[in-house]
């Protein structure tokens, strides 16, 4: 990243003004980092003290732990890694029993990241077996969601593109075996060809929404659903080798989605649950917005997104997200579990919302550094 871009980023995140010296630049950078870390730790620590009634390897927790692992990698806070190591030991580094369901793969991501920190092969023995089962079966993917009794054995809903593909990509990193990338690549594009609306640069949640319309007769594109996808794209692209044959195709989809989403940002910096119909549910939502902030920051840091367009979008999104964080650290206005746009309130929180927020905060720290 160029020196000029670094200065531009720091100025946009901390505030506006001219830098009088390299020392002033460093001072503003330190201030920006301290503020982001303060918010990151506040949200992470609040969430670690507040549970939901699920197994801690359920996808709600898996999505939170992907963010917590990113928080550890960005800050070096050992408590966050220890939390994941303790979790893995408790569950013997296993997923839930529904091993063909993409949601069960979410926890594989932080488990594999923990393995890469510690290096004990027992930490990925079971999860590698789970992913190998997917590769070993030869049946053709059926990505229909409606009227499909096997819909949860394939990536038939767009959320699955966050839960499972990055797990395959991370297993490639852990083992060096390209078969995991190849399976991920094949099935990403099977699902994308079915669910992606290229004219809008957005994903339908599943095929039940192909012909559905919002209250104001707009196509229904769910904010968090698209957040799952662009978040998954960033996590896959972080790993996908530069010379992998379809990497340009992944990059093109990422850039197209990011530009579509940037154009739909609301005045407060966030996004409504129904992306094309802001009037139906006008209160902006945190979880989808946090995924967008994370992915766009990742895209700028990796020179895929235009800095002059996206740094202001990221700055507004981060500011808007922090208005939804209580003084104790609860991220509110998180839409509850669902599959379509719905109303939200200030008291609504979920683990996956905090996970997305931590991803965004960690990426901002990387972007500044």
Explain this structure to me?
The chain has 369 residues and is mostly helical. It has a single domain (3-368), classed as Glycosyltransferase (Alpha/alpha barrel), CATH 1.50.10. 56% of the residues lie in helices and 2% in strands. The protein has 14 helices and four strands. The longest helix has 27 residues, at 22-48.
Helix content: 55-70%
Instruction: Indicate the mean pLDDT.
Output: 94
Termini separation comes to 10 Å
Structural class: mainly alpha
Number of domains: 1
> Secondary-structure element sequence?
HHHHHHHHHEEHHEEHHH
For the record, the CATH class is Mainly Alpha
How many strands in all? 4
Q: Provide a count of the helices.
A: 14
Beta content comes to under 5%
Q: What are the key terms here?
A:
369 residues, 2% strand, 14 helices, Glycosyltransferase, mainly alpha, two-stranded antiparallel sheet, 4 strands
Summarize the structure.
This protein is mainly alpha-helical. It contains 14 helices and four strands. It has one domain: Glycosyltransferase (Alpha/alpha barrel).
Draw up the topology in text:
Elements: H1 3-14, H2 22-48, H3 59-75, H4 78-90, H5 108-118, H6 125-136, H7 160-163, H8 165-175, H9 179-195, E1 196-197, E2 202-203, H10 223-237, H11 247-262, E3 271-272, E4 284-285, H12 286-301, H13 307-323, H14 351-368
Antiparallel strand pairs: 1-2, 3-4
Helix pairs in contact: 1-2, 1-13, 2-14, 3-4, 3-5, 3-14, 5-8, 8-9, 8-10, 10-11, 10-12, 11-12, 12-13, 12-14
């Amino acid at each position: 990243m160029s020196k000029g871009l670094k200065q531009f980023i720091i100025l946009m995140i901390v505030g506006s003004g001219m830098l009088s010296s390299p020392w002033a630049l460093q001072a503003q950078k330190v201030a920006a980092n301290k503020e982001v870390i303060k918010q990151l730790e506040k949200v992470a620590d609040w969430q670690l003290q507040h549970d939901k009634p699920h197994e801690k390897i359920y996808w709600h927790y898996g999505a939170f732990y992907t963010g917590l692992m990113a928080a550890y990698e960005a800050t070096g806070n050992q408590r966050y890694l220890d939390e994941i190591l303790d979790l893995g030991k408790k569950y013997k580094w296993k997923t839930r029993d529904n091993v063909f369901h993409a949601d069960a793969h979410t926890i594989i991501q932080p488990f594999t990241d923990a393995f890469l920190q510690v290096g004990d092969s027992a930490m990925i023995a079971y999860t590698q077996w789970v992913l190998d089962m997917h590769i070993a079966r030869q049946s053709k993917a059926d990505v229909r969601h409606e009227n499909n009794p096997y819909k949860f054995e394939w990536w038939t809903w767009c959320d699955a593109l966050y839960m499972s593909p990055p797990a395959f990509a991370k297993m490639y990193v852990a083992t060096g075996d390209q078969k995991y990338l190849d399976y991920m690549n094949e099935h990403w594009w099977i699902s994308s060809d079915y669910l992606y609306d290229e004219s809008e640069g957005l994903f339908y949640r599943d095929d039940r929404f192909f012909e559905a319309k919002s209250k104001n007769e707009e196509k229904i594109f769910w904010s968090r659903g698209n957040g799952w996808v662009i978040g998954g794209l960033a996590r896959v692209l972080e790993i996908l080798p530069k010379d992998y044959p379809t990497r340009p195709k992944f990059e093109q989809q990422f850039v197209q989605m990011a530009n579509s989403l940037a154009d739909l940002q609301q005045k407060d910096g966030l996004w409504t649950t129904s992306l094309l119909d802001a009037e139906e549910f006008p209160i902006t939502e945190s979880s989808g917005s946090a995924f967008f902030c994370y992915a766009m920051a990742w895209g700028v840091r990796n020179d895929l997104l235009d800095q002059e367009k996206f740094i202001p979008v990221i700055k507004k999104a981060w500011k808007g997200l922090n208005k939804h964080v209580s003084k104790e650290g609860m991220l509110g206005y998180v839409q509850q579990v669902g599959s379509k746009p719905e109303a939200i309130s200030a008291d609504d929180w979920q683990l996956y919302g905090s996970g997305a927020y931590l991803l965004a905060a960690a990426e901002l720290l990387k972007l500044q550094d």
